[in-house]
Design a protein that fits this description.
Cytochrome Bc1 Complex, Chain D, domain 2, binds heme C
Amino acid sequence: MNATKMVYLLLFAVLLSYPPVIKAGEDPTTAPGYYPKEYINMKNPLPFDLTSLREGRKLYTGQCEVCHGVYGDGKGNAALIGKYKPMPRDFTDNNIMSKKSDGMLYYSVSKGVHGTQMFAREEIMPPNQRWAVIHYIRTFIKGEKKGK
Ligand code: HEC
């Protein structure tokens, strides 16, 4: 093979690999902390009242507690035994939770959190259940300066 042929072959190879394919790991929508704009400012349509908190607690106990824990601290049995990495979100941590809008949490509950054990719920929980459980997980937040 002479040099000219070689150059053409190389050019051909370059052309074949274009446009560059986005690999799963490079997809920006799978990056940690990514939320689509249309979710971030979504408002919880349910009132923060006893009815929705009762509903939220029922759902949490049945579907979330095994990982996020009875106290919402992310130390549920499944996560402890399975040594999950990362561990489920600690809902008592005000530093993190105060930066998350209801819409952001709704996105994660609906779509799951990429690369973690947190799977999508949109096929198995109707929207109102997702919103109710989000109200409920807000009750785990620790008051300011309560310590521990
Ligand atoms: C199989 C274990 C498991 C179950 C069951 C589970 N989660 Fe999670 N959850 C996780 C893990 C792991 C994370 C990721 C934590 C992280 O990214 O730091 C997470 C993260 C979250 C977050 C934080 C998302 C964010 O954007 O900050 C919310 C909210 C959440 N889960 C809600 C729920 C709710 C509500 C349920 C029940 C319907 C539930 N989870 C059930 C394991 C679980």
